[in-house]
Design a protein that fits this description.
The protein is of the alpha+beta class and about 240 residues long. The protein contains six helices and 13 strands. The protein has helices at about 45-60, 100-105, 135-140, 145-165, 210-215, 220-230; strands at about 5-10, 10-15, 20-25, 30-35, 40, 70, 75-80, 85-95, 110-120, 130, 170-180, 185-190, 195-200. Helix 1 (about 45-60) packs parallel to helix 6.
Length: about 240
């Protein structure tokens, strides 16, 4: 049962529940880009993201990844374990796209020799700046052992998701993950959706993620529906 509002962000809200240590995560229809400078409300987006994220978390847990996911409870509601969230997110890149192209002058679409993991400090006001392990240790954001565990989990998630998506003709270009602590152990949290992943059609290179909204390439809900349909997810 959903209780009091605990936190609200751009795309999700968290509520207390009748069970200690569990929260309800509600997916919103809001779409934002460029640190909130671009905003719209997209019909069905929350339901699509809830369904897709639930499906991915279930597959990850079946593969042995420890996540905060408990179960999907409604069209836009997911029950999760409450984590002590890390202020550091991990981005995994298989193909050059987005900010790494701007930062390093790389050509979009360049396939990387191996998956690259990058760390970013979660702070909207600062634009989520890129950091390294030394920053994390010096400023108390995360211990070196925690960062190593996060990077390894991110690589494991990358392998699992890449296989799942390749089987339906989608290439996983890059994605971000957030982690938290539960009883001292690093656990995957937040969400796994086209909001936080770059997904390209393998045959055509057509974008099937939030870049459609960022770059005005068409209807976002239609694209998310296509991703869900290819994965066999019932909305």
């Amino acid at each position: 049962m959903k209780g009091k509002l605990k936190y609200e962000g751009k795309g999700k809200a968290l509520y207390t529940t009748e069970t200690d240590g569990e929260l309800i995560q509600v997916f919103k229809d809001d779409a934002t880009a460029f640190d909130g400078k671009k905003h719209d409300v997209i019909a069905e987006k929350g339901e699509l993201n809830c369904a897709i994220s639930s499906w991915f978390f279930e597959k990850l847990q079946e593969a042995g990844i420890n996540t905060h996911y408990v179960k999907r409870e409604g069209s836009v509601e997911m029950r999760i374990k409450e984590l002590e969230m890390m202020p550091v997110e991990v981005v995994v890149r298989n193909v050059a796209a987005g900010s790494i192209c701007r930062r390093l002058g790389l050509e979009e679409g360049m396939v990387l020799e191996r998956p690259l993991t990058e760390l970013f400090y979660k702070d909207d006001a600062l634009g989520d700046p890129m950091i390294n392990t030394e920053h994390c240790e010096l400023f108390g954001w995360a211990k070196a052992d925690d960062i190593r565990a996060m990077r390894q989990l991110a690589r494991d998630v990358n392998r699992i998701l890449s296989d799942l998506l390749e089987n339906v003709g989608i290439r996983l270009i890059d994605f971000k993950l957030e982690f938290g602590l539960l009883d001292g152990e690093i656990v995957l949290g937040d969400e796994v959706t086209p909001d936080g992943c770059r997904l390209w059609d393998i045959e055509t290179g057509r974008k099937l993620d939030k870049d459609v909204f960022r770059q005005d390439l068409g209807g976002l809900s239609e694209v998310y529906h296509e991703v869900a349909n290819r994965l066999g997810i019932n909305i």
